[in-house]
Write a structure and sequence with these properties.
With about 230 residues, this protein is an alpha/beta fold. The protein has a single domain (about 10-220), classed as Aldolase class I (TIM Barrel). About 40% of the residues lie in helices and about 15% in strands. It has helices spanning about 25-35, 50-65, 75-80, 95-105, 115-125, 150-160, 175-180, 190, 195-220; strands spanning about 10-15, 40-45, 70-75, 85-90, 110-115, 130, 165, 185. Helix 1 packs parallel to helix 2 and helix 1 runs parallel beside helix 9 (about 195-220).
């Protein structure tokens, strides 16, 4: 990976936007969530016209600047125009290597995957990280079967990339996702649908840090040079 290219923070608490699920205006929700501990924001408003999406992206860039990574879902043009940190691709989107040919070496490229085969293809094509799911049942994808934390574990055995779990993740089950090998979680309704997105983000951040602590201890206890 290019040294100038951003990396996902560890542990990562990513907010994926969906203004239809917001209890407060989207930008207010994002600002509160970042203050509460979100350190990556993925702008995913697929129904917005390009001009409106760019304006939203620019406002979110101001909110997240110096506080959280900003990723744009499936729109490299918008990501470049608002100076986002990266672009996030759906499983059926463009190959990461094609996006990087256009966007340059410094842009971070992530991809959503739902299987080991898709994860392998994304890694071969140069993805920097993967969002893996659906881990638990979620209202965002009704009727889509949940694979459980095992899908994260299986993908982790196959590719050497940072993994972020998504789908029905709450403060109660985040530990299962981290124990399976993820470096973080991505959430939508758990933060956006809450009356106070900042408090919801803070609760997730606390649970995430608790789940992450054993991994830090294991790294600290590892012999030098191991």
């Amino acid at each position: 990976m290019d040294q100038r290219r951003p990396r996902l923070p560890e542990p990562c608490l990513m907010l994926v936007t969906d203004r239809a699920r917001c209890a407060v205006p989207l930008e207010d929700a994002v600002a509160q969530a970042v203050a509460g501990g979100v350190n990556a924001v993925q702008l995913r408003e697929r129904d917005l016209p390009a001009g409106d999406l760019l304006q939203t992206a620019q406002r979110l860039r101001t909110i997240t600047q110096g506080q959280a990574l900003l990723l744009i879902n499936d729109r490299l043009d918008i990501a470049l125009a608002c100076d986002a940190d990266g672009v996030h691709l759906p499983e059926a989107g463009l190959p990461p290597k094609v996006v990087r040919q256009v966007g340059g070496r410094d842009i971070m490229v992530g991809r959503s995957v739902h299987s080991v085969a898709a994860a392998r293809d994304a890694a071969r094509s140069g993805a920097d990280y993967l969002i893996v799911g659906t881990v638990f049942a979620t209202a965002s994808h009704p009727g889509e079967p949940a694979s459980g934390p095992e899908v994260v574990r299986e993908v982790g055995r196959t590719v050497d990339l940072p993994l972020v779990g998504i789908g029905g993740i709450t403060a109660r089950n985040v530990g299962e996702v981290i124990a399976a090998g993820a470096i973080g979680i991505a959430v939508i309704s758990a933060v956006l649908a809450a009356p106070n997105p900042g408090d919801a983000a803070a609760a997730l951040r606390a649970a995430l840090e608790d789940a992450w602590a054993p991994r830090v201890r294991r790294q600290d206890e590892r012999p030098a040079g191991a």
